[in-house]
Amino acid sequence: MEGMEGISYWLPLVWAAILAVAVTLYVILDGFGLGLGILFHAEPSEEKRDLMMNTVAPFWDGNQTWLIMGGGGLLVAFPKAYGVIMSGLYIPVIVMLLALVFRGVAFEYRWVAKPNHKLWDLAFSWGAVVAAFAQGVILGGLLQGITVVDGQFAGGSLDWLSIFSLLCGAGVVAAYALLGTTWLIYKTEGELQAWARYKANSALLFVLGAMALVSLWTPFSVPGIWERWFSWPNILLLSPVPLLTAFAAYSCWQGIEDDKSDIRAFLSAIALFLLGLVGLVISNVPYLVPRSLTVWETAAAPSSQIFMLVGTLLMLPIILGYTAFVYWTFRGKVRAGEGYH
Description:
Blueprint: H1 2-39, H2 46-56, H3 60-77, H4 79-113, H5 118-144, E1 148-149, E2 152-153, H6 163-187, H7 190-221, H8 225-230, H9 234-237, H10 240-257, H11 264-284, E3 287-289, E4 293-294, H12 302-329
Antiparallel strand pairs: 1-2, 3-4
């Protein structure tokens, strides 16, 4: 019995860690691809648009793997949480998935439809904007809380719609734009790189503003988060997180301005994302549905978790290895006329 209790305690934590890795990798790896779509609105040059898409052409479809793993892992390991979250946020989730479909189809069809591809340009660009905004709304709706009674969703279909969730949506759009601009700084040169540096400064300011607002909003509006961050000795133990965030923001700004290290801005933007995710985890652990259901309350039977864990642990190194191989193979600058599509 003691052995089973130990397994029941640790298995949900292992699966929560796997889901955290999947979500983190999706946000970072697909984030700069969505960011390029968001930036399409601001770049009218056809040649530069082609170059922007070519920088991400070898990677973008493989990045969706992590979204599938995150959603599938949530269903398998935490079915009760999956049911509550999908019931409460199904409208922005469906909008996000449809937008990703439009973005993906447009990516492929744009090349073969030339020169009559304006419709696909719009689908690629707006698909990225809508998908990014929907992801932020999903995050905001989750953070502000989903109404749960007796372990079941008990709210309305529009409970997610609030000023806070819309703020999170705008913040994610700006954050992906920052990843997109810093990716272009890393992968391109000349006029497009200079344009990306200029746009990156504005994106960084918007991201920092959104992070500041969310960081101030949640402790005052969500019970428990204030105590988590500002009680003693937590305020001392957790102080490295905001300090490192400030350092990452400064490093990103320095990387944007410094033309001697093209990768610094991109790595610093990734660090900002990681620290933001760390902050969200600290604010909400051990809840999977914030302030309602913990990882243990929503976990599937240990036998189901173990069965899926075996397959996941076998496939995860293969996926990670393939991802690393692709990024290594297509490393370096992408120049006009070069591409993979």
